[in-house]
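[Discussion] Sanity-checking designs against the backbone

I'm trying to build intuition for which residues belong where. Below is a structure token string of 164 positions. I'd appreciate it if someone posts a full sequence so I can compare it with mine line by line.
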């Protein structure tokens, strides 16, 4: 009886941290890009690179939250590629506020950001925001800077039309 009670107390004590970790962005490390591409293969996916310290990103994130809500057939993935390390709480807070908490969220987890960017796109110098639209057929369209919602809607419409 005492063991069961003790086990229950331990479980209850660790539950808040386990629940908090469940909503935390996953660490984006070497090999994560290929895993992400494999996991979303054959499904239209919007991948948005942003950062907590990026002014245009703060404006764009809520727009992406609305886009995700309006386009449930599009997988939305965010990757915090901020050069300022160790901002997981600020990252999660911004995603929550933008309506992106239920998206697939990642945060650069490797101090060598250049290596991660090179793995994604060898020509990428690290500018954010950056959006990559991955079509069902795997063709990637890259938008440097802020993405226009009208362009995202048009792309989404073409992806929906491809299934008809």
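Best answer:
Here's mine. Compare freely.
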């Amino acid at each position: 009886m005492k063991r069961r009670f003790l086990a229950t107390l331990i479980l209850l004590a660790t539950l808040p941290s386990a629940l908090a970790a469940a909503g935390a962005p996953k660490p984006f490390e070497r090999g994560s890009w290929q895993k992400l591409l494999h996991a979303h293969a054959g499904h239209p996916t919007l991948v948005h690179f942003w950062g907590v310290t990026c002014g245009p990103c703060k404006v764009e994130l809520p727009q992406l939250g609305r886009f995700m809500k309006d386009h449930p057939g599009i997988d939305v993935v965010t990757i915090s590629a901020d050069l300022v390390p160790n901002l997981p709480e600020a990252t999660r807070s911004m995603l929550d506020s933008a309506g992106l908490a239920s998206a697939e969220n990642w945060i650069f987890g490797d101090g060598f950001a250049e290596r991660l960017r090179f793995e994604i796109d060898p020509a990428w110098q690290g500018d954010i925001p950056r959006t990559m639209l991955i079509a069902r057929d795997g063709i990637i369209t890259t938008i440097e800077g802020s993405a226009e919602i009208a362009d995202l809607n048009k792309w989404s419409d073409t992806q929906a039309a491809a299934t008809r």
